[in-house]
Each structure stands twice: as C-alpha cells, then as structure tokens.
Amino acid sequence: MLLVWRGRGILIFLITFCCLLAMDLITRITFHDPKYYELHGWPKLAGFWIAAALVYALRPWLATGRMHGLFDKDTERDVSVAGTLFYIPVYYWPMTLLALGLLFYFI
Fold first, then answer.
1. Burial class (CB in 10 A: 0-12, 13-18, 19+), 91
2. pLDDT by residue (tens digit) across 18-31?
3. Which domain holds residue 70?
C-alpha cells in the first residue's frame, strides 16, 4: 500500500477540498448559474488561497504527529513524525497551494 501522507498531512487535502467545494456552492448561490465555477478561474483561485491561509495558520499543529509503536531507545521518547502530503512537508504546502491557485486561474 502506498501511503502518501504522514501525521496530519491528510488534513491539507481535506481543507483544500472543502474550500474549493465552498467556493463552488457560493458561486452557484450568488450567480444563480451552476456552470459559473467551471467557466471562471477566480473562484478556484480564491478557494486555493483561502486553503493556503488556513494551512498556514494551522502549520504548527498539522506538522506534528506521533507514530505509535516507534520509540527511540537512546532518548527514551516516542518518535515524532513531521506531517507530509505527497511527500511534501506541511511547511511548504501554503506556497504550493498559492501556486496551484494561480495555475488554475490561468488554465
């Protein structure tokens, strides 16, 4: 099985998905057009940038995590594993989401 996240890294995906879904629903309600989100780039840009702001604010919490069963005998402590998503550390995800927002805006 291919594990693509560590720690709380999966929450980055969930935050981004929820922000993009919220922008879709907001544009449907505001503009009374179910295709508005698909035809315009700015709602995707806004969704990615809101997700980037949330991930940036939650970075200290998202980056931590404990792998149960891992124990360092030298220090006598549990091993703390930094959060990742697709092998990218949490601390780089806000910049990645900003870039993805720009990419989806222009495509």
1. middle
2. 999 999 999 999 99
3. 5-106
